[in-house]
Amino acid sequence: MQTFDTYVNNAPQDPEIETLQMAILTSGKTKGTGVLFTRYRDPGKGAVISMWLPALRKIRRINEPSHEDVWFGTNLTYGELVLRGPDDEVHELLGEGRVEGCLAAMELQPWEKTRYTLQLPGPQCAHIGKPVYLLKSTTKFNNWWYDYHVSEIDKRTFALYKTVYYKDGEMIKTVYIDWQSLDQPDPRITYPRYIYAVTHLDGKDSMVYVPRSTISLNVDLGDEFWSEQTLQNYGR
Length: 236
Hints:
Layout: E1 4-9, E2 17-25, E3 34-40, E4 48-53, E5 58-63, H1 78-83, E6 89-98, E7 131-139, E8 148-154, E9 160-167, E10 170-181, E11 190-199, E12 205-209, H2 228-233
Antiparallel strand pairs: 1-2, 2-3, 3-4, 4-5, 6-7, 7-8, 8-9, 9-10, 10-11, 11-12
């Protein structure tokens, strides 16, 4: 179990930068490790990761990671979370339907529960019956870890509730996302209350939980915040 703070800047002042994302671990053996992810508007310019390693007291700069690299030891990949774009796949609308079951969540044994995990949500059933698009997306990458995935996408908010990945005709992973409203005029402005991913071949699962009370919108943070210096000094 790890806790972390995240920040997202979707309107940076630098016209060459599309988005800035920052994540800093706030618990565990790797507490203080920070990552700054910079994505550029130029499609030919790869993203850059700056990582602060407190044990070494060094910044490590990494060019855009591979899409299949895992994120912080989970079974979620950088491709799924930040890198994969619409042009990386071929899309086919299979039809329309409705959410038929609860969105799964991680199940913990009593001895696994700690002060951090006691508040983890259970399966989310509130989305049952919502109309969705059924979209098949086939990867353009050769010899990839999946051949295609089928997603259930809310027809009103375009929130992606469930994605099932297939390889050689077999279901290999399912990702559930419990998108919740942020009470903004635009219904598409939502947040992932939790992301739960389970790999069917070995049963490995991971869960990211975002309490609503921790979210602040449109916070005025100056350009100097989005820097390697912030990674080094965060929490001091």
